[in-house]
Design brief:
Sugar ABC transporter permease; MetI-like fold; membrane; two-stranded antiparallel sheet; globular; transmembrane; transmembrane helix
Length: about 300
């Protein structure tokens, strides 16, 4: 690193391409969206500045708030259902002595599939007539539990949440496993001598030591939930009756189906603002808990 800093040309060669990519694919689109978010624009004619009208419309749009609520459900499901399951699964796999590589590969496989493939695959699983889930329920004598899972208001969004969790669990399990295997063995051996074994050791020793990785996973879950689009789009397209709509799908429909590009850009800005706020709140809470824990 010191050698690089002593050679300005090398420093420029390494940093400028990255900065250009950042400007092209993040900063420029963000500023463009910010510009058009304050206009009335159909994507073709000249954009007309309308001040805060788009944002006022969003705040009074009940369908937009349904989408916001569903994004919050995404976050809550990820944090309070998906992450505890990821942690438990990673702890179990970390203790497996035989075929551990097989289990890691099997768990990780869904993460390498595209979201479109996962959405189509699980749409067949949830199919009311030929779907694996209904066939399984019928085979074990629970025919009364059979559903039109993606068309029932009570189960449609939960079905999407389960599918999304299935796709990404493996990726997060690998992160947690890497953190677990990085724990020095002498710490775990000392804990065993002191009587901390099994789940007691996991809760008292392992989990606190991998806390930084868990914080990163929560942050990734929050940001991923706020920008969720493709899985909902492929599986339900926001149906039935818009109850599975999320902010990104609602933004897409406003832009490419109705032609309200100005309003869609305002929604994009709100997604960005909400994500930043939630991330800052989480970071504030984690810092407070660390201050309380470590004095």
């Amino acid at each position: 690193m010191n050698k690089t800093l002593k050679n300005p040309l090398a420093y420029v060669l390494f940093t400028v391409p990255t900065l250009l990519l950042y400007l092209m694919f993040f900063l420029y689109p963000l500023l463009t969206s910010l510009r058009y978010g304050f206009t009335q624009w159909n994507g073709i004619s000249h954009a007309q500045f309308n001040g805060l009208d788009n944002f006022v419309t969003a705040l009074h749009d009940k369908y937009f708030w349904v989408a916001v609520k569903n994004n919050i459900y995404f976050i809550l499901f990820s944090v309070f259902v998906q992450i505890p399951f990821i942690l438990a699964l990673a702890l179990l796999i970390s203790r497996v002595k035989r075929l551990s590589g097989f289990y890691k590969t099997t768990v990780f496989l869904p993460s390498i599939l595209s979201t479109a493939v996962v959405g189509v695959l699980w749409s067949f699983v949830y199919h009311p007539e030929a779907g694996l889930l209904n066939k399984l329920l019928e085979a074990i004598g629970l025919s009364s539990w059979k559903h039109v899972w993606l068309a029932d208001e009570a189960t449609a969004f939960l079905s999407v949440l389960v599918t999304n969790a299935w796709q990404w669990i493996g990726f997060y399990v690998v992160l947690v496993l890497a953190a677990i295997f990085a724990i020095p063995k002498d710490i775990l051996e000392a804990a065993e001598i002191d009587g901390a074994v099994g789940w007691k050791q996991a809760w008292a020793i392992t989990v606190p030591l991998i806390r930084p990785v868990l914080i990163v996973i929560v942050l990734l879950s929050i940001t991923g939930a706020m920008k969720a689009l493709d899985i909902v789009f492929v599986m339900t397209n926001g149906d039935p009756y818009g109850i599975t709509e999320v902010m990104a799908t609602y933004m897409y429909k406003k832009a490419y189906r109705i032609g309200e590009y100005g309003y869609a850009n305002a929604i994009a800005i709100l997604i960005f603002v909400f994500t930043v706020i939630l991330t800052l709140i989480f970071r504030f809470l984690t810092r407070k808990s660390e201050e309380v824990q470590y004095g």
